[in-house]
Write a structure and sequence with these properties.
8 helices
């Protein structure tokens, strides 16, 4: 791959804005497990090797099992994920691929049965933020470390 720009160096204010979103997510009340699932699943969907690598390592350090990470791409076909996690993964997929149909009423209504409005807002912000990071890493060809 060709060496590309480093946005952190070239536009530090914009990069700090992304870091501020990340800081919010780490202190807003989303469980670490939920946040890891969102980050990994969106990164898988976007094909972001850098983020998949980083966030799977973080999840393992925080106690996630390798088996659940191996099955994440096929979460609908396993019983390894709770009903809460399944709704979060559905939201992650629908918001990540918003061009298909957006966040469906069905998924949103299921989320409302489980989570309060603030938690839903936090889930959506987590999905939006990781999609931003994925786009930065992919467009600048950032390689896994």
């Amino acid at each position: 791959m060709n060496k590309r720009i480093n946005i952190q160096d070239l536009e530090p204010k914009a990069y700090r804005g992304m870091l501020a979103l990340e800081s919010f997510l780490n202190s807003c009340g989303l469980s670490k497990t939920h946040l890891h699932l969102i980050k990994i699943r969106a990164s898988q969907m976007n094909g972001c090797a850098y983020c998949i690598n980083m966030h799977t390592q973080d999840a393992l350090k925080d106690g996630e099992t390798a088996a659940r990470l191996f099955l994440l791409d096929a979460w609908r076909d396993t019983e390894s994920y709770s009903s809460e996690e399944r709704i979060i993964l559905a939201i992650t997929e629908e918001v990540t691929f918003i061009h298909k149909h957006g966040l469906s009423d069905k998924t949103y209504d299921e989320a409302k049965k489980i989570f309060d409005d603030n938690y839903i807002a936090q889930i959506i912000m987590a999905v939006v933020t990781i999609n931003g990071w994925n786009r930065i890493a992919i467009s600048t060809q950032k390689l896994p470390e």
